[in-house]
Amino acid sequence: MEFSRQARLKHARLAGDRREQYPHSLQFYLEPPMESISLVEFESFAVDRLKLLKVIENLGVSHVRGTDAYKTKLEAELRKLKFPYRALAEDDYETRRKDHISHFILRLAYCQSEDLRRWFLQQEMDLFRYRFNELSEGLMQKFLEHVNLSFEAIGEDLKNELANELSTSTPGFNLTKVKEQMFYKVGLADAVDLFRARKVFIKDGFAYVPFKEIHVIVLNNYRTKLSKALALTARSLPSIQSDERLQPLLNHLSHSYVGPDYSVQKNTGKISLEQIDALSVKSFPLCMRQLHRALRDSHHLRHGGRMQYGLFLKGIGLTLEQALEFWKKEFIRGKVDADKFDKGYAYSIRHNYGKEGKRTDYTPYSCMKIIMSNPPSQGDYHGCPFRHSDPELLKQKLQSYKISPSGITQVLELVKGMHYQLACQKFFELTHDVDDIGFSLNHPNQYFTESQKLLNGGRELKKEFNNSGNFQQKNNSQESINSSSTLTSSNVKTDTELEGLEAYFTED
Fold it and tell me: Which of 61, 382, 456, 498 has its CA 20 to 30 A from that of 295?
C-alpha cells in the first residue's frame, strides 16, 4: 500500500468507512500494520511514542497511578504528542493510526533483550491501564466484545440469589451496591489475581467479578498477549539484524536519548580548570563525580572512563586547550610522562573535539547510552553507578555524601525496580534539597545545567542545542550506529518507504 495521505484516504474510501480500520481508540495490537512507511514518519512516530513512554515511567514513580494529578499530566502529554487519550470524536483516524504503527516500531526496537522487553511491557501496561479506565461503561463493554472478552453478565435472578455471598466476598460492597453493580461470570483461570486478593466470590470454578474490577482481567489478558508477542518478535532478531534498513534505526531507538545533544553551548571556555573540583561536588551527577574522584585519586582513567568523562567536560564548556591541559596535568602526576601523554593520549582528546580523524564533532553520552552500553569491568569507573554498582557499595557511597537514611532507601528502591534514571533524579532532589525538580532527567549534562540554574538562582548560562527535542543524531562512532546509518541516513532518502514490516511479527 502507498503511504501518502491521499493514497490512504483513497484506500479508505474504497474499503468503506475508514473508521472500520480502527473502530476503537484502544486496542490489543494483535495485527501489525500492513502499510509501507516512510523513514520520516517511522522516526517521527517512534520518537513521539518513546517520549510518551518515558513520561509514563516518570509519572509512575513520582505520582500514584490513577490520581487526578497523574491523569492530568498523562492526558496533557497524550494531547501534545497527538495520541488517543480517551474515546475521542469518531474521526480520530490519524491518532489511532499513529498509536498502532508506533507501538509496533518500538516493539521491534525493544524486543532485543530481556531488560528492554521488561521496560517496554511495563510502560505499555501503564498506558493501557490509563486508557481503559478512562472509557465509559458502554465503551468498555464494546471494547470487551471487540477483543473477544465478552464475559457473561449474570441475570438479576441469580444475582439476588447470590446477593449475600457477593456482598460478603466483594470488598466494599453491601447488599445495595450488589444490586446496583453488574457482575460477570468469569472462568477462574482469568480471575486468578482477584481470587488471590480475595476480591471475588468463587463458585463451581467461576469467579463472580463486579464491573469495577473487570479491568484487572483485561490487563492480565493484555499483559499475556503482549509478553508472548515480544517473545515471538524476538525470534525474528536474526532477520532484523540482517536487514540494513531496520537494524541501525532500531538500535538507535532502543538506546535513544530524545533531548538536546549538548554539543554546542554558549559557555564554552567560561569554566576554569580551578572550578572543576568544586563543581564536581555541587553539580556533577554521581557517574561523573565518581569518574572525577577516581581520576584525582589514581591520576589515570581507562578508555571508557576518558570517553565518558571527557565528553561530559566538553559539554559543560571546556575548550580543547583546557581539556589537553586538564588531562595532561593529571596524567603526569601518575605514571605517564609528558612525552608519552603527547604521543598516546593527546590525539584522542583532539579527536573528541573533531580536530583529528574524520573531524567528527562528538557529543556527550546520554544516560541511556551509559546505562545500556559498555558496562564497566574490574578497574573501570565509567558506567552508571545506579545501574552497575553493587547495591551495598552504592549505599556506602550515598552515606559518604551525607544522604539521609530515608533518602538512601528511596534511591535503592528505585534501583531495585530498575528505574536508574529516576534514582539519579532522586539523588538530584536529595542533594539540592528540592521536592520535585519538575523535569525528567535523561542526560548527565542536563543534570549539570539544571543544578547550576538552581544554585545560581536561574542565572546559569543557557546552552544552544542543535536538535532540541530530537534524537541525538551527531555522526558519532561511539554510538551503536555510525554515520552511514543514522535515522536520517545519507545513503537512504528520507522519503524512502519501509515495506514488509509485518513479516517480523508473525509465525513462519
Answer: 456
